[in-house]
Write a structure and sequence with these properties.
7 helices; oxidoreductase; NAD(P)-bd_dom_sf; 3alpha(Or 20beta)-hydroxysteroid dehydrogenase; binds NADPH dihydro-nicotinamide-adenine-dinucleotide phosphate; 7 strands
């Protein structure tokens, strides 16, 4: 077992499946206690049970301020502290500026942007008590360029990138590091929102010529969460097989 995170406590949102599940699994393998949260209670509970000791699940909507309060209280009451927050939960609703439904636009802003904002805000107090911490926000390559047909999603992912840098400046005096990770095309259920030809074109435009695996993203997050990244804050780590080049 790797042990770079021994004694640390992590909270992973949207951790019931996809990238979040791989992150929870990896942080647990690296020695951390993990609170997984998600809307998908059944999948989340099953994952927590499969991982075993020092992993819990709690149902949680990241766009809900009161729900965040309850989750942080639960983490501190079960594990005694919070060292690592991974703001991973996100939704993707394709739609261009001319035709996207305003409900979809608003929902993406609430989950992808407000959810990350609230997570960072609620993590500050327990991380101050712990003497510092590491926040990793999952943005996207869609937070580093434009994507026709996904204006609202792109806007929220650029917002995550900007909030990350601002939080890194605000929280550095508290020894809280804040970084963003920018996945390329990763093989999770989220890609089902695209027509197959869009994903195929994504692979063809990827110099490494494959979809990313959730574990590729989990490895980047584990590094940013660890003391090996102790001098890294406000950075954006692109994990896309070279797609953006
Ligand atoms: P998935 O859809 O596979 O998993 C996301 C999980 O988050 C789901 O269980 C989902 O539940 C949950 N979730 C959605 N809304 C909320 C909410 N309000 N509160 C709590 N949990 C919620 O997505 P991925 O694993 O692919 O994506 C994870 C992150 O990575 C997202 O932020 C995404 O934008 C980002 N990303 C993904 C890429 C990819 O190619 N897959 C590329 C770049 C970035 P439910 O299914 O019920 O909505």
């Amino acid at each position: 077992m790797r042990s770079s995170l021994a004694g640390r406590i992590a909270l992973v949102t949207g951790g019931a499946r996809g990238i979040g599940a791989a992150i929870a699994r990896r942080l647990h393998e690296d020695g951390a206690g993990v609170m997984i949260t998600d809307l998908r209670a059944e999948d989340g509970q099953a994952l927590a049970a499969a991982l075993g000791g020092r992993v819990c699940f709690m149902e949680h909507d990241v766009s809900d301020d009161d729900a965040w309060r309850a989750v942080i209280e639960a983490v501190v009451s079960v594990f005694g502290r919070l060292d690592i927050l991974v703001n991973n939960a996100g939704i993707y609703e394709p739609g261009g500026i001319a035709d996207a439904s305003l409900d979809d636009v608003e929902r993406q802003i609430r989950v992808n942007q407000m959810g990350v904002f609230l997570g960072m805000r609620h993590a500050i107090a327990p991380m101050r008590s712990a003497g510092g911490g590491s926040i990793v926000n999952i943005s996207s390559i869609a937070g580093q360029c434009g994507f026709p047909g996904a204006a609202a999603y792109v806007g929220t992912k650029w917002a995550v990138r900007g909030m990350t840098k601002t939080a890194a400046l605000e929280l550095a005096p508290d020894h809280i590091r804040v970084n963003s990770v920018h996945p390329g095309f990763i093989d999770t259920p989220m890609l089902d929102r695209n027509p197959p030809e869009t994903n195929q074109a994504g692979v063809e435009a990827t110099p490494l010529k494959r979809l990313g695996r959730p574990e590729d993203i989990a490895a980047a997050v584990a590094w940013l969460a660890s003391d090996d990244a102790g001098f890294v804050t406000g950075s954006e780590l692109t994990v896309d097989g070279g797609w953006l080049l």
